[in-house]
Each structure stands twice: as C-alpha cells, then as structure tokens.
Specification:
heterodimer, A: mainly beta, six-stranded mixed β-sheet, five-stranded antiparallel β-sheet, 11 strands, B: mainly beta, seven-stranded mixed β-sheet, four-stranded antiparallel β-sheet
Chain lengths: 113, 113
C-alpha cells in the first residue's frame, strides 16, 4: 500500500501567522489533491496539482507539487480563524487503479483569533 | 440540491445488529465510493463501484457489502455489527479516470454499543 505521510499532524497558531503543511510519499502519483474537511462535513476539494513542479494559488493558499511527483506542500499566508479545519492530501495512484484516491492522515489546523 | 447525500447522518445500534447506509448522487458520475474515517480522522477507502461493478475491495470484513442498484446509488450493508465498526462512513462519487475530483457526502456517524 502506497502511503501518504502528512506533517505536522496538529498545528495550532495565532491569526496572521504563516504555516506550511507537507505531504510526502515514496511513490509517484499522477496527481495530488488537497481537501479541507470541517467538523460534521465531508472533505471538499481545494486544488489538484498534476505537473511536477506545479504551483497553484488559491487566495492565501499556495500549493506545490514536487518535481518527482512524490510530494506536495500547502502554504497558508496570514492564517485566519476561518482556515481552521482538517487538511487532507490525496494521491491518485500513478499507473494503478484509476479513481482510487489514497489519503494522508490529515493535518488538523487551529487558528486562534 | 445536495450533490452527494447519505442517510442516516447518525446511527446508533447494538452489537450484532444488521444496518444499512444509503447514498445517492445527482452529479452524473460513473464511480461511487465508500470510505471509513476512524477516530483519528484517517480516511480509508473501503469500496468503489464503476458502472455497477466492484472495482476495489480493500481488506474489509465480508460483513460489509456494497449494493449498487444503479449508477446513482451505492448503499452499504453491514451485518453483525461490532464495536470496532464505530466510525464515520463517507460516500463519495467521481468520474472514472485519473486526476478526478471526488465529491463527498456529509458522512454517517455509526456508533455501535
């Protein structure tokens, strides 16, 4: 089973701080997706990165896919309380069963006002 | 109009009982999934159905059985419930193929007492 390791597992910061969440694997993925999950809800897709080295921005969120397509990072600038939630990375297995998202264990982010 | 809806949202039942969770999607997707999220928030795939065929069956007990009457529905039947089955179960759907976004339902919190 190809695993996606996310770090840190928990992150508690003050409003206005910057943070980075990492998603690493020894396997190559055809793409990596980032989801955010709020309490009592299902995960919601934030972004999909497909090309090695790709960088995507979503307002204060910056996503990067590693050159070798084995890792990804999510950077949040000037975090706000509304960013609080569980961030999940998910890989689409390269060359394997299509449609099978493999999830990391998530990073629980808490942003305090 | 909810894209992926699952019922019930909460389910409390005794050990040994048999229960079902229903899922419906109105997105026209051809693939549906069941995920289990444990108390540590780890999201793990259980099953996926593509065009009414079981594509992936991870190592879950055979007490769990997915039933898909049509492309828009994927129900989860659980026989002889055990305490360890307590978790949040998420239904999701997507188009078959790489880099595809999965849309999740709100989850069913199953508690076995």
């Amino acid at each position: 089973t190809q695993l996606l390791e996310q770090s840190p597992q928990f992150l508690s910061i003050q409003e206005g701080e910057n943070l980075t969440v990492y998603c690493n694997s020894s396997s190559v993925f055809s793409s990596l997706q980032w989801y955010r999950q709020e309490p009592g809800e299902g995960p919601v897709l934030l972004v999909t990165v497909v090309t090695g080295g790709e960088v995507k921005k979503l307002k204060r969120l910056t996503f990067q896919f590693g050159d070798a397509r084995k890792d990804s990072s999510l950077h949040i600038t000037a975090a706000q309380p509304g960013d609080t939630g569980l961030y999940l990375c998910a890989g689409v297995h390269y060359g394997g069963s299509q449609g099978n998202l493999i999830f990391g264990k998530g990073t629980k982010l808490s942003v305090k006002p | 109009d909810t894209a992926v809806s699952q019922t019930p949202k909460y389910l409390v039942t005794q050990m040994g009982n048999d229960k079902s969770i229903k899922c419906e999607q109105n997105l026209g997707h051809d693939t549906m999934y069941w995920y289990k999220q444990d108390s540590k928030k780890f999201l793990k795939i259980m099953f996926s159905y593509n065009n009414k065929e079981l594509i992936i069956n991870e190592t879950v007990p055979n007490r769990f059985s997915p039933k898909s009457p049509d492309k828009a529905h994927l129900n989860l039947h659980i026989n002889s419930l055990e305490l360890g089955d307590s978790a949040v179960y998420f239904c999701a759907s997507s188009f078959w193929g790489g880099n595809t976004e999965a849309f999740f339902g709100q989850g069913t919190r199953l508690t076995v007492v």
